[in-house]
Amino acid sequence: MEENDFREVWRWVLSVGDSILSIYKSDFQIRDKGGNDPVTEADLFASEFLFEKISNRFPSHGFLSEEKLDTNTRLDKEWVWILDPIDGTREFVKKNDQFALSLGLVRNGEAIWGVIFNPATGEFFSKNRNTFFAKVHPPFATEENFRILLVESGSILHPLEESKPVAKKPILLVSLSEMKEGLFSDSFWHDDFEIRSMGSIAYKLGLLSAGFIDLIVSLKPKNEWDICGGIALLDEENFTCFPLKDKGYQFNQAQTLSFGLVAGKKTAVQYLESKIDFHQLSLKVKERW
C-alpha cells in the first residue's frame, strides 16, 4: 500500500459522502433487517460504491461490510477492508447527525489504517503517518476539500500533551441505548465522569482519536465493522483500547463479534480502573443488543 492509495480512498469517501448527505436530506426509504435493525438506501449505496472501488483497485484484497453477504474467502487474505457504510443508522433515520461512515484496513488481523467520516457535520478523521482531523464542507468531492485533507494529514495532533492539566472529570461517551437501558445508572459514573450519551461507536472513536473526548465505554457487543476504522486511528503510545470479554482486538475473524469496549486516553483509562475493577466491569457486559 502506497500513500497515493490512501489518498485515493479519501477521494472515494468524500464522493460517497455527497451521496449519503443527499439521501439524508431526502425522504429516504427504510427497511428493517429484523430486531429493530434498520437499513436505508444510503447504507446500501455506500456499501456497493466502496466495494466496487476497492475491488477494482485492490483485486487481491478481502472485503467485509455490514451490508454485504459475508463469505469465508476473506479469511485467508493478508489485506482486508472492513466497512460500516453508516454506523448509527438509527440516528441517521432520526436525522440527529450522530452517525458516520467507518472504513478500516486490516493487515494480518491488525487494524492499520482507517477513516471515519460524518457527512452531516463534515468531520473527517483519518491517518497518514499520524492520525488527523479535518473539517470539510459540502459538496465534499472537490479539490478544495481534498487539499484540506492533504494539509491536515501533514500536521500532528497534540490532544494529549502532558503539560495540559488532566480534567477533574474525564469526558466519557456512552451509547444512547445503553444509557436509556440503565447500564450506566451506578452513581460513580455520574459522580466521577462527565458522562454524555451519543449514537455511533465509530463517530465516538473518531472524536476520541482527535482528543475531543477522553474515554468511551460500551457494555454491549460490537461487530468488527463498527470499530475497525476507529481502532486503527488510536495509536498505542497515547491510547488504550480493548474488549471487556476478550483478550484483545484481532480483526478479520470468522466470528466478527467482540463483547464490551473500553477505549480512551491512557490517563483516562487508568482513572477508570481506579474507580471500578475491569473484571467487575466485564461482568456487566451484555451478550446481546
TrEMBL record:
Positions bound to Mg(2+): E66, D84, I86, D87, D226
UniProt keyword annotations, A-Z: Hydrolase, Magnesium, Metal-binding
Cited SUPFAM superfamilies: Carbohydrate phosphatase
GO annotation (BP), single: inositol metabolic process
Gene Ontology molecular function terms on file: inositol monophosphate 1-phosphatase activity; metal ion binding
Cited Pfam families: Inositol_P
Cofactor: Mg(2+)
Highest taxon in the source lineage: Bacteria
Protein known as: 3'(2'),5'-bisphosphate nucleotidase CysQ
Organism: Leptospira perdikensis
